[in-house]
Fold:
Amino acid sequence: MTTPQPSRVLVYRTGHLGDTVCAIPAFRLIRQTFPDAVLTLLCDAPANRQVSALEVIHRLNIFDRIRTYSSRRSLTTPFQLAFQIWRARPQTLIMLSQCRERPQEVQRKKNFFRNCGVRDVRATQILNPPQAWQPNEPARLIQLLAKMGIGGEKPDYSIHSDPTRLESVRQKLAASGMDATKPFLIFCGGGKSPAQRWPQERYATVLKKISEELSLPILGLGTNEETASYREKILPRFPKLILPVTPFSIPELFELHRLATAYLGNDTGPMHVAAAMNCPVAAIISARNPPGMWDPDVATRLLFRHRTFCENCFLNDCVRENHRCLTAITETEVLAELLPFLEELMQRSEVGGQRSK
Structure:
């Protein structure tokens, strides 16, 4: 006898930019598994009360509804969660756990959802040896779903172009003195924590050499704080770094990476946006996480990562070792591999090669 499919399914996932983008293939696989269900996404709104990729997720036509709650870990958070679950009235709840959640934390949330009246709660975790190479986050989520009985190949991101946003990106590039029809490099030297950031003084050396050797325009992306840091630490050494006159919105970031030749920078939300748009990625990744865990999900990539005895520390700021995993990566090492990587991408562009977007 065939088990009837649930008519209401709730997907629980954190709402930060990189986490949301990495979950898009998993979201698509869930929709393929429950094609006729009312599918609701429940995610936390970060401190600024906005779900970073909310507008993009809306455009994917995967979810029928999106519900949010505050992620500030206040006493009201459980009540907000319970209220949103009551509103959705799911028959099945699928929890896409974060990569560092411990099994007991997953079980605690699973019990909470059951106490909220959800009978079919699907939640699990994959544990790998901490020093072993990990599947990256999109692949891990597909493995999680398989353990929950939701099997299948990892779907493509399939983020279709938004003509209005694409035109806005072209206009903002033009206002910054850039030609969107010609090759350009996106640079992002920020990151959530100091332990993710390669020194910007070193980036300045690398960016200057790229400009001298390849004559490639370089656009700097970042928050207001990160842009201020570029002005202080990069522009005095590399004045040709282009800072946008008008900031790009999150939906516009996707269209921007659709146009770009490549992304260069740290492990950031924009890095995962680039990967989702099949934009080649060159990234300098710290060892605060296990190897592979947050590798960009794109075939054309160049990664720099220095393994240390203290990797997988998950520190926000490395005081004891002074960010050894990052400072051990030199400008010479980066340039030796990065220049040929970018040169080949530019040659492909010149002969009319187009990547699938």
